[in-house]
Amino acid sequence: MTAADYTRARRLLSRRDPIMGALIRQHGACGLADAQHTEPFTALTHAIISQQLSSKAAATIARRFDALFGGRPTPVAVAAASDEALRGVGLSGQKVRYMRDLCARVADGSLPLDRIESLGDADVIDALTAVKGIGRWTAEMFLMFRLHRPDVLPVGDLGIVKAVQKAYRLRKVPDAARLVKIGEPWRPYRSVACWYLWASLDNAPDA
After folding, report:
1. Could you tell me which residues come within 8 angstroms of residue 144 by beta carbon, excluding any fewer than 6 positions away?
2. CATH number of 40-146
3. C-alpha pair distances (Å), 34 with each of 13, 70, 163
4. pTM for this one?
5. Catalytic: which of 108, 157, 202, 206?
6. Are 192 and 30 spatial neighbours (Cβ–Cβ below 8 Å)?
7. What is the mean pLDDT of the chain?
């Protein structure tokens, strides 16, 4: 998305949804574009590393992992590394297996990272969630923060659920169907709307 796209998104969201408009006025320019287009393979290895860890612990292990490969891990290099070397930087045995599966799928072409930007959102999610250890939420964050896709609505994200309940003053926690209905006016900029919802809680994902 370009700067003009973000401007267009803010105008559309404000016009269609007064509550979203209030969040936009409160938080200003959308920060979704601030995320870097990290090399896709590195982004996915870091997503696996970060699972069930604090941000600080994940960052430490990610630095060690990257350093093991001269600052730029590649599928070939990671596949060639011994289990001992991968465990040595702090990966659990399970995460080593996840890394192996990721590398194998890149190697056999079932996860075409070299052309993933050309795939539609659903195809990206299908390809990523076929990898052991990568679920739908991780795939959706990859779409939003790495590929900058404008129309993603992660209904399983706890922050989004809480933010919608708070902003729309709902008595009950909204389920997926309710979130989709509330978010319908946000199309085709649901990713942008999500950033403002996260901003309202000050807890955008570390993607």
Report:
1. 32, 152, 154, 191, 194, 207
2. 1.10.340.30
3. 20, 25, 21
4. 0.88
5. 157
6. yes
7. 93
CA distances from 53 to 41, 60, 62, 146 (A): 20, 11, 11, 21
- Alpha carbon 204 to its chain centroid, in Å, reads 10
Q: Is 157 a catalytic residue?
A: yes
147's tokens: 């590929």
pLDDT tens column, 106-140: 999 999 999 999 999 999 999 999 999 999 999 99
Q: What is the C-alpha to C-alpha distance for residues 186 and 205, in angstroms, rounded to an integer?
A: 20
Q: Where are the domains of the chain?
A: 3-35+151-201, 40-146
155/89 Cα distance (integer angstroms): 34
Class of domain 3-35+151-201: mainly alpha
**What is the residue-wise DSSP string for 2-19?**
-HHHHHHHHHHHHHH-HH
CB burial readout 18-46, b (16+ within 10 A) else e: eebbebbeebeebebbebeeeebbbbbbb
Q: 40-146: same fold as 3-35+151-201? A: no
